[in-house]
Design a protein that fits this description.
single chain; alpha/beta; Isopropylmalate Dehydrogenase; ten-stranded mixed sheet; binds 3-isopropylmalic acid; binds magnesium ion
């Protein structure tokens, strides 16, 4: 029996709806196993800008630092997407949080629940058995390098930068994970063009000497994008830089049927942050139809990684599996075979999972 303090950071759009469900699942686990989970909430993103002018108020950051884990929703608002001149943006809150908390490793497990084989736009025979664990580096690269304008604003630049140390620490995490899985690691870069990628490859090659039991393959990002769709089962653990990882994991979400299914863990030096990979999805916000399973599966990752509660975590994943086996779907994972009465909204899908717990 443990006592843990969890910070709920719903953020924007459907972040509010899905984290409410994730929290209920955590509550139910606490009750079942006799743990005490206490909660607080903090602001980030567009709603934080509205309330304080700052996408990540100091108060939120302090609360994050003093929590045992963070269950995160999403950030973003359409009003900024078409306004390139906006100086203050919701995403800055997310990036600052990652940097300040030292969350350099972003784990994105891509696992297809068998019941969702037909929900993907990829052929079932190609998908069956796909199980990939992405390690996306999260606090370096072109995201955090110097950026700006020159020539009276007519030229813009974003600098991509990596240090040996940054590549090595994410590389190590990926090698360690590969050891507990199929012992296959694919390192993705663009070493035929980019200097940062050549350093990346050099560091991974050197690390590989320390992990002779892991088979390492180096792939260019463009061909990886192709292979993910052509033959997803060839991958086990994938490690890559921030921007490549951002793009490849959205692509890979289609292997799991829907972006609404994918959870992620951001870990590093301090408090771990657990969040769906889907964004704020303002097109469906407030409609009560968002898929809460990514938030629920993020809660499962939180239990496992930050609290070491393996049994609790496995129970949550099993509950999601059971609900899918029963035929229940949210609209994003429904297909022609789904009975209309089995298409559930956000809250009802949450209740279905809670029933199994
Ligand atoms: C993600 C998102 C973020 C990113 C955005 C919202 C800044 O796409 O977590 O994948 O690019 O990292
Ligand atoms: Mg992304």
């Amino acid at each position: 029996m443990a006592t843990k303090h969890i910070l709920i950071v719903p953020g924007d759009g459907i972040g509010q709806e899905v984290t409410a469900v994730g929290k209920k699942v955590l509550d139910s686990i606490a009750l079942k196993f006799g743990h005490t989970f206490t909660y607080d909430e903090a602001l980030i993103g567009h709603i934080a800008i509205e309330a304080t002018g700052n996408p990540l108020p100091d108060e939120s950051l302090e609360k994050m630092r003093h929590s045992d884990a963070v269950l995160f929703g999403a950030v973003g608002h359409p009003k900024y997407d078409n306004d390139p001149s906006a100086k203050v943006r919701p995403e800055q809150g997310l990036l600052k949080m990652r940097k300040e908390l030292g969350l350099y490793a972003n784990l994105r497990p891509i696992k297809l629940f068998d019941e969702l084989l037909s929900a993907s736009s990829i052929k079932p025979e190609i998908l069956k058995g796909a199980d990939i664990l992405f390690f996306r580096e999260l606090t370096g690269d072109i995201y955090f390098g110097e950026k700006g304008r020159k020539n009276d604003g007519d030229t813009a630049y974003d600098v991509a930068e990596y240090s040996r140390y940054e590549v090595e620490r994410i590389g190590r995490k990926a090698f360690e994970a590969a050891r507990t899985r199929k012992k296959k690691l694919c390192s993705v870069d663009k070493a035929n063009v980019l200097e940062t990628s050549r350093l990346w490859r050099e560091v991974i090659q050197k690390l590989a000497l320390e992990y002779p039991d892991v088979t390492v393959e180096h792939q260019f990002v463009d061909s990886t994008a192709m292979m993910l769709i052509k033959d997803p089962c060839r991958f086990d653990v994938v490690v890559t830089a921030n921007l490549f990882g951002d793009i490849l994991t959205d692509e890979a979400s289609q292997i799991a049927g829907s972006m609404g299914m994918l959870a992620s863990a951001s870990i590093g030096d301090g408090t771990g942050v657990y969040e769906p990979i889907h964004g704020s999805a303002h097109d469906i916000t407030g409609k009560g139809i968002a898929n809460p399973l990514a938030s629920i599966l993020s809660a499962a990752l939180l239990l496992d990684i930050s609290f070491g509660m393996k049994e609790e975590s496995a129970l949550v994943i099993n509950a999601v599996d059971q609900v899918l086996k029963q035929g229940f779907r949210t609209i994003d994972i429904a297909d022609a075979n789904t009975a209309p009465e089995n298409i559930l909204g956000t809250a009802a899908m949450g209740e279905a999972v809670l029933k199994f717990l």
